[in-house]
């Protein structure tokens, strides 16, 4: 199993590899695409300027650096496209075809058909937006389009990922493990993102450029998840995405157990909230994922500052190195907690990417 890290510039490539990333991924939002469709209709589902590689020339430089250090670099083209966009999309594919990327990450069936017609020459990975919920879907992508990897959906539990992985022995598998634990189904999401960057122009990027957002999240990390949710819900404001609004969750039908239903409501309200951006962690699940044969553990956060990307990779690489010799799952989880304290710099408060058995049951009640 390898660490798959986000990347957005040539300057980040070598430091991330040195920290332990063997795979990198990122997306280009070229000026011609942005001018015609704005950042909201991003070609790679990352709408913010701070998330994207600036040009295909820089992408080529990044690939060269990665290959010189035995790492792989994947390009995201994982949006869902409209028919009028395909002419310009094909122009972008022509530019990409001249660069030695190692794989395309794709969600759109129309794009998969286009790649098949073009006899595309690199690996194809099916994005979480491709909604691979069972082994037959994975087989369809593999046999019809030659896809070599699928990315599991983020709303699954770790147990569901392991069970599904055991049925897919003909492709590589990848799972998210750090940052931005949204419980929406990515391939069905129609929320708009990146609107504030258009409304507020460059001023919207200032908090991120100055590290104010990271300082805010760090302060929240000093209190319990339940308290942090209460704080962020009370703040209100104008988030950049509809999935960060303070939704009120209600149970339409349930088990009748009021305690379980209340716990489920609290969990879901916390995942659709600004606090959901606070680095949920799936390191403890490495024990299961490694034994299940997953190819990669994926970190979210192309928009994150370089220091944070390096820290995330460093932490997860130390955990991955230990899982190979861990005596038991309990001992491994204890090691994860100690490393979290050492590398991340604060106690683990069990803000988990994939809820444990009890929480998973509550979430689906």
In short:
The protein has 365 residues and is an alpha/beta fold. Helix content is 44%, strand content 10%.
Report the portion of residues in β strands. 5-15%
Report the top-level CATH class. Answer: Alpha Beta
Name the helix and strand elements from N-terminus to C-terminus, one letter apiece. Answer: EHEHHEHEHEHEHEHHHHHHEHHH
Number of strands: 8
Q: In which range does the helix fraction lie?
A: 40-55%
Major β-sheet annotation: 8 strands, parallel, barrel
Number of domains: 1
CATH topology description: TIM Barrel
Name the overall outline.
globular
Overall pLDDT confidence: 87
Let me know the CATH homologous superfamily: Phosphoenolpyruvate-binding domains
The Rg value, from CA coordinates, equals 20 Å
> How would you classify the helix and strand content by structural class?
alpha/beta
- Span of the ends, CA to CA: 32 Å
| CATH A-level architecture | Alpha-Beta Barrel
User: Which stretches are low in confidence, meaning pLDDT under 50 for 5 or more residues running?
Assistant: 357-365
Q: How many helix segments?
A: 16
> Order of strands in the sheet with the most strands?
1-2-3-4-5-6-7-8
The multimeric state of the shown protein is: single chain
């Amino acid at each position: 199993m390898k660490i798959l890290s986000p990347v957005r510039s040539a300057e980040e490539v070598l430091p991330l590899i040195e920290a332990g990333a063997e795979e990198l991924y990122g997306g280009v939002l070229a000026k011609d695409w942005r001018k015609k469709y704005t950042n909201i209709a991003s070609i790679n589902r990352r709408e913010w300027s701070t998330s994207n590689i600036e040009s295909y020339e820089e992408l080529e430089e990044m690939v060269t650096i990665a290959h010189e250090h035995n790492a792989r670099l994947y390009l995201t083209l994982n949006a869902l496209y409209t028919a009028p966009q395909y002419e310009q999309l094909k122009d972008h594919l022509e530019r990409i075809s001249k660069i030695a990327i190692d794989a395309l990450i794709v969600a759109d069936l129309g794009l998969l058909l286009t790649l098949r017609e073009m006899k595309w020459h690199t690996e194809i990975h099916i994005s979480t937006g491709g909604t691979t919920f069972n082994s037959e879907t994975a087989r369809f992508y593999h046999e019809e389009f030659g896809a070599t990897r699928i990315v599991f959906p983020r709303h699954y539990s770790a147990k569901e990922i392991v069970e599904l992985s055991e049925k897919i022995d003909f492709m590589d598998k990848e799972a998210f493990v750090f940052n931005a634990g949204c419980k929406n189904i990515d391939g069905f999401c129609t929320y708009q993102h990146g609107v504030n960057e258009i409304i507020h122009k460059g001023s919207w990027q200032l908090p991120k450029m100055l590290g104010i957002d990271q300082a805010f999240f760090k302060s929240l990390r000093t209190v319990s998840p339940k308290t942090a949710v209460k704080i962020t819900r009370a703040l209100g404001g104008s988030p950049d995405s509809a999935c960060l609004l303070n939704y009120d969750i209600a149970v339409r039908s349930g088990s009748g157990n009021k305690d379980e239903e209340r716990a489920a409501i609290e969990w879901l309200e916390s995942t659709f909230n600004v606090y959901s951006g606070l680095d949920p962690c799936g390191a403890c699940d490495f024990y299961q994922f490694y034994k299940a044969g997953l190819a990669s553990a994926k970190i979210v956060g192309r928009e994150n500052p370089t220091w944070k990307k390096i820290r995330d990779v460093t932490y997860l690489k130390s955990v991955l190195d230990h899982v190979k010799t861990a005596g038991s799952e309990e001992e491994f989880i204890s090691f994860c907690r100690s490393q979290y304290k050492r590398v991340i710099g604060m106690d683990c408060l069990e803000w988990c990417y994939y809820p444990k058995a009890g929480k998973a049951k509550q979430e689906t009640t």
